[in-house]
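Appendix B, record 7
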Amino acid sequence: MLPLQTRREISPRLRHLKRLSAATLSALLGATLLGACADDGGSGSAAGDSGGEGKTTVSVGVFGVFGYKQAGLYDEYERNHPDIRIKENATERNEDYYPALLNHLAAGSGLNDIQAVEVDNVNEMATLQADRLTDLKSAPGVRESDFLDWKWDQAKTKDGKVIGLGTDIGPMGVCYRKDHFKKAGLPTDRDKVGKLWAGDWEKYVETGERFMDKAPKGVSFMDGASGLYNASVSGYERKNYAPGGKLIYKKSQAVEESWDLAMRAVKGKTTARLKQFDTQWDQAYSNGAFATVVCPPWMLGYIKEKSGTKGADKWDVAPAPKPANWGGSFLSVPAKAKNRDEAVKLAAWLTAPEQQEKLFKKQASFPSSTKALESTGVRGARHAYFDNAPIGRIFSDAALEVPKAVLGPKDQIIKQYITDIGILQVEQQGKSPGQGWDAAVKKIDDAVED
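Structure tokens (predicted):
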């Protein structure tokens, strides 16, 4: 789940996946969304313990901040189910959480009753761990029609089981600095800005080249080529794998075209040559060193925090060239969960449209529920820091058009090595595109079996 946080690991989506601490999250939330406020919540005893007084404790394992406690949803569920207590067990980083989860599943012990799964790991879970997870497709209260079809399918096994219920999603937009655009002679109105690159990421790169002709001193068009690659490749149905599981990234149209766009951006000197979620990237927000960044809804709070008061009234949000998704998670229930029946009920309730809407209002976690996306509370949402941008409409429209991507068990590793090894060697070390690509392929081949 990615509210205004970044629950990230070592790679782009990892870092993009390292959720912020609860304290930082609370600081980001203040007045971020019109009408938003955060509640304290959550109680219960240690995982696996009895809740006391004959109560059952349902344990929930997450990485980073999922927001259920902060939004008061655990407390609400406990009030409505007085025989249940909920205990959340949070690990800060998914890179620590996920390997431990795999070990616990293999051992059949040490498991929470509910286990969160990040989107870049869900295919591996559905492919290799399905027998160790509960099929939630027909769980009480669960309706396939309540979820975006592409989100529902991400957690589906080949034989039709659904091993995870969708939490949040990350439909992409483009956040931009109006002051930098004005100085470069480009429009600043969000609708006109969106038209600059509508329909094609190549137009986004072309806009960057126009921007650099009259760019303010010391300002680049975009933060880094890796963000562009991630945005572009995520808009295709097939990128690293073909249906059936065959590894195709070396001959993939999505990978090839997205790599070429990233290389064009580097060659045209339109990037600030930054690695996302590194210290230098954070500082560049404060210094106003770049004019655009690809931004899912969960990144808005991050931008607000890092840009601070100096960036107030300067940022806005426009639709991305093509619909694509970056981020999101699922709630799964291990087959050997101690309190499996109660866990299934809780997981279904937490991911129901009503709770997804509440979570968005209080934590800005963007819903994967079609019903929640259509609600006034979500679709009508605006973000004060981004010039009152209609983020509910922008991101809901994108979410409804995200393609059904073919996922594979090693998507995370492939993307990490292409961006963190291949692209960064070209962008930061001056290697040729061929050298960067070969370095990435070598790392991928060492880690992934075709």
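Remarks on this record: Residues 411-429 form the longest helix (19 residues). The longest strand covers residues 55-63.
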